[in-house]
Design a protein that fits this description.
Strand order of the largest sheet: 3-2-1-4-5-7-6
Order of helices and strands: HHHEHEHEHEHEHHEE
Shape: globular
Distance between the termini: 45 Å
Number of strands: 7
Largest sheet: 7 strands, mixed
Strand content: 15-25%
Radius of gyration: 21 Å
Number of helices: 9
Structural class: alpha/beta
């Protein structure tokens, strides 16, 4: 139904001030737009970071949407591998809905935080190891039902290579990456060549909905279900190993 908003609105003073400042002459309309895009990027990222201090992991809207999707699509009693598990925010959700979960991350600090987080939750079906995800796959990790790639592909030099390895290891793959198309202003940034066009300093790639689908299908994965809410692309995929 949407959010109903009163026709009579109060405009805060800070908004009026911003519009007054925007009237200051600049060299061109494109330079004005570029400045506004940079300011939007800065405040958007500050809001995103602050949201993780304002909401707990279980209450954060991003985690809730992800958990709802995983609950709907995950096979019963799944064996799960979370590549690049970080500090374990998603591991706790996976541990609640799976039989056995292995998380790997190259950062010993992040794995330490994950183990503390899991100990607080009392989840004894989740194990976490310090190792590089690509090396783990190349080392011949045991086959699993589901591989989770949450905010991993955008960091890799060759995301298609790890997807091909993953497709041979499991029956299902869950992928989550930022949605480049979630903000119309990202297209303005691309057209103007603005430097602040990434969603994280360590990102090599930013994907739109068509690009991520083509990447997954090119690696032999079939997209079964998608969720594009709250600025993220969530994709539940099956691999060709289902047919073998």
């Amino acid at each position: 139904m949407g959010i109903e908003i009163s026709r009579a609105k109060r405009v805060p003073s800070i908004v009026r001030l911003a519009y007054l400042l925007n009237r200051i002459p600049r060299r061109s309309n494109k330079s004005r737009l570029g400045l506004l895009l940079d300011l939007e990027w800065i405040f958007s990222h500050l809001c995103h970071e602050a949201s993780f201090t304002a909401f707990s992991n279980s209450e954060h809207p991003l985690r809730i949407v992800t958990r709802d999707l995983l609950l709907r699509v995950f096979p019963a009693r799944a064996q799960v591998l979370d590549l690049g598990c970080g500090s374990g925010d998603l591991l706790a959700i996976l541990g609640e809905i799976s039989a056995d979960v292995v998380g790997v991350d190259h950062s010993a600090e992040q794995v330490g935080l994950a183990r503390l987080h899991l100990a607080e939750k009392g989840l004894d079906n989740v194990r976490v190891f310090v190792t590089d995800g690509v090396e783990y796959l190349q080392g011949g990790g045991a086959p699993v039902d589901v591989v989770v790639l949450s905010h991993i592909l955008e960091h890799l030099e060759d995301p298609s290579a790890i997807l091909r390895d993953v497709a041979e290891l499991c029956s299902f793959v869950y992928v989550e990456v930022p949605d480049f198309e979630s903000q119309m202003s990202n297209e303005f940034r691309r057209l103007l060549g603005r430097p602040l066009i990434f969603s994280d300093l360590d990102h090599i790639w930013e994907f739109d909905r068509r690009e991520i689908t083509e990447l997954l299908e090119g690696a032999g994965l079939m997209v079964l279900e998608t969720d594009h809410r709250l600025g993220m692309l969530r994709l539940w995929c099956s691999s060709s190993s289902l047919d073998t």
